[in-house]
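Q: I'm writing up a methods section and want to include an example of the input and output format. Could you take the sequence below and give the corresponding predicted structure tokens, formatted cleanly so I can copy it straight into the document?
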Amino acid sequence: MNHEDLFQLIDKTAKASLAAGKAILSVYNSNIIVEQKFDNSPLTEADKKAHVEIIACLAKTGFPVLSEEGRSIPYSERKEWEYFWMVDPLDGTKEFIKRNGEFTVNIALIHQQKAILGVIYVPVKDELYFGAEGVGAFKVNSFSKLPNHSNVESWTSKNNSLPKSIERKYTIVGSRSHMSAETEAFINEKKKELGDVELISVGSSLKLCMVAEGKADAYPRFAPTMEWDTAAGQAIVEAMGGKVINWKNKTPMKYNRENLLNDWFLVTV
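A: Here is the clean output for your methods example:
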């Protein structure tokens, strides 16, 4: 896929994430009613509204969509897909319910099990992270206020390029809501190895964004996640030169597996 095609897809994906973000904020600023999904994870009207907005926007691309809120597509069908969208309409529902702002919209383009393009939008901060194979990784502030939302080339300016050069000690970012004993053991090993290590806890795919941005050196996740939790972030991290490694086989994480539950993984620069 050439740069022109990728830029067009970044444009469509960014607009989809912005539309989803606006739908999420319309619920965020009102009374939040929480339902329980079959796995006992929370579901809100914001998840549903964001899903609808994204599906409507991405339908124009012609690629199928696998979304957390529409996950029941059988493997026998989706294994035949060459390209498809992997979507988490609202990543960090628990953080959304807590109203701490640490939730995102995640959209990734998957090609033959590899995340080749990713967009992560942070509605409360109006920040857009995106990255694509051969294009690089970038962060755009005040995204909804840009005068021209179709000028993708202007988004890829040097000022927006990731990672940023940030003076700091070795930093590990971990989950705000899910910290396993194995993750704590990894952190303790790094403290023994390096001495002074900073630990930051944050929700949703913002952890992958922090590594991509240069605010963290590692994100160990030795606890359950799903493919839609990580695909967009992996595309962005890899586009800036980082890695998202399957901890079991020490190879890059792959997508569209029969079982959509991720193995443990480590994100590093």
